[in-house]
Specification:
By secondary structure, the chain is of the alpha+beta class. It is built from 3 helices and 15 strands. The two termini are about 30 Å apart. Pfam families: 2OG-FeII_Oxy_2.
């Protein structure tokens, strides 16, 4: 899958904290990749603890990466599963393009508009103090909502279309939160891939 990702015609937002590439992967590559990942990734439903209560998260997910990595998220300690070959190729391509290491990918599958993700920042200790995280969207277009940390008012949103890519640069997780709001009337599925570097030993 050489030259899958093309970082051109991008836009820098949030004073440099975020780079947005609406057409990073062409439909000719994105369409078969989407169908293959739907069929081949080990999707499962997880339960997380929020304010002391367990809830089933409103999406499917899986965590892939280098052997022996672990990640704690909302009270759950997740072990990485082996890389899917296409996702390993994407991680290596992103490393070459951005000159940043990526040793894991969190895959989220939004089955329809009833699935979503609440406000959060990816600021867990395993990610280090200033992580760079790359988000790739496949399938149905969904909004990527943004707000400043400590505020309740939404700053704005980006429509993440099929084949789009977002680079959340080193300062973003300390200053911003993001969410994927639920949306009535969306029947199609979406996959989101977030490539990141976990510090070994955490």
């Amino acid at each position: 899958m050489s030259a899958l990702i093309q970082l051109h015609e991008g836009e820098t937002l949030l004073a440099g904290d975020l780079d947005y590439y609406p057409q990073a992967i062409s439909p000719a590559h994105a369409d078969p990749l989407f169908q293959q990942l739907l069929a081949e990734l080990p999707w499962h439903s997880d339960r997380i603890t929020v304010y002391g209560k367990e809830h089933t998260i409103p999406r499917l997910q899986c965590w892939l990466g280098d052997n022996g990595l672990a990640y704690t998220y909302s009270g759950k300690r997740l072990q990485t599963l082996p890389w899917h070959p296409h996702l390993l190729s994407m991680a290596q391509e992103l490393q070459n393009l951005l000159q940043r290491p990526f040793n894991s990918v969190l895959c989220n599958r939004y089955r329809n508009g009833n699935d979503g993700m609440g406000w959060h920042a990816d600021d867990e200790p395993e990610l280090g103090p200033a992580p760079c995280i790359v988000s790739v969207s496949l399938g149905a277009e969904r909004d990527f909502a943004l707000r400043r940390k400590g505020e309740t008012r939404q700053w704005g949103k980006l429509p993440l279309a099929h084949g789009s890519l977002v680079v959340m640069n080193s300062g973003m997780q300390s200053r911003w939160q993001h969410a994927v709001p639920k949306r009535a009337g969306i029947a199609a599925e979406r996959i989101n891939l977030t490539f990141r570097y976990l510090q070994p030993g955490h």
